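step=predict obj=Ion channel n=350
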Amino acid sequence: MDELLYLIGGILLVLVSSFDLIYTTFAPRGAGPISGTVTATVWNILFSICKLVNNRRVLGASGILIVLSILVTWVMLLWAGNTLIFLSDKEAVVSSETGLPANVYERIYFAGYNLSTMGNGDFKAGTNAFLIYTAFISFSGLIAITIAISYMVPVLSAVTQRRALSIRIASIGHSPQAMLLNNWNGEDFKMLETQFSNLAETIALQGQMHYAYPVLHYFHNNDKETALLPNLAILDEAVSLLLLYIPEEQRPGAQYLFPLRMALTSFLSSLTSTFIDPDDIDSVPPMKVDELQEKQGLYLLDPDMNQIKQLNYRRKTLKAMIENNGWYWDEISAPVLEKNFYLPNAFANE
């Protein structure tokens, strides 16, 4: 009876872990149940520590720790499942020298070194069925290693792309109002057309990468310049300011503004479907226009409250996005770099 339970349990473990590995790596959207659980568990532990010690740097290693935890979990489950299968038959594994059945520890060893395709020959399968199965798991181990590598490469590549996109957005301005003021030429904001060019495509790509590789959401950067989520929040707020407060003739052209808005919406949708819940946010953050009001020659529209309220859900989503990543809403208006990196008066709104 125990042997049957070992066999059934081993087969289930191998099938479930194999499904999770394949689904997480190749599915166009989302993570498997095991990798998703591992991801959430590691992140929640690190996030709790971050809040406890009040230091965001704890989250700096979250992404790579989660990836490693997922890979280790896949390996351990496959190893455990195959060990249970080899425990289901007394003659499944025997000593190559004496022909005696292997004990539990020797079967764990046998399953592990065959799964890693590094068989030493001191033990062997004791029946024809297990001879074939041993060859199968050696082959499946090679496939699993290849798939795991194919999972890591695009994730690490996407992380580099995220950093580059973040720096690109941060170069426009360190806050929503600074983005606009840095590109005010005294008459309009048409300079933003150059800044917004090609951003929509890159942001949309990042949104789709979040669907395919949810672990990307947990790669945290401590520096605002390279932290994508705060900079996306700044960019979205800047677009909202343009749509609410700036006369249409002074805005960037619709062919630049609206594709960017749609790409940002798509990115936010990828987060709300998997990672964040805007309903967890109690209050809508205030929309600041004080610096724009002080700018000479700049006329602002006076939007009614209904127009502003239409953005409540969107802006709660933005706040949830950055707080879920260890940031605070007030930080979206903070300088990107330390003051000693700036050239004094080189840019009016640094």
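step=describe
The chain has two domains: 2-149, 171-341.
step=end
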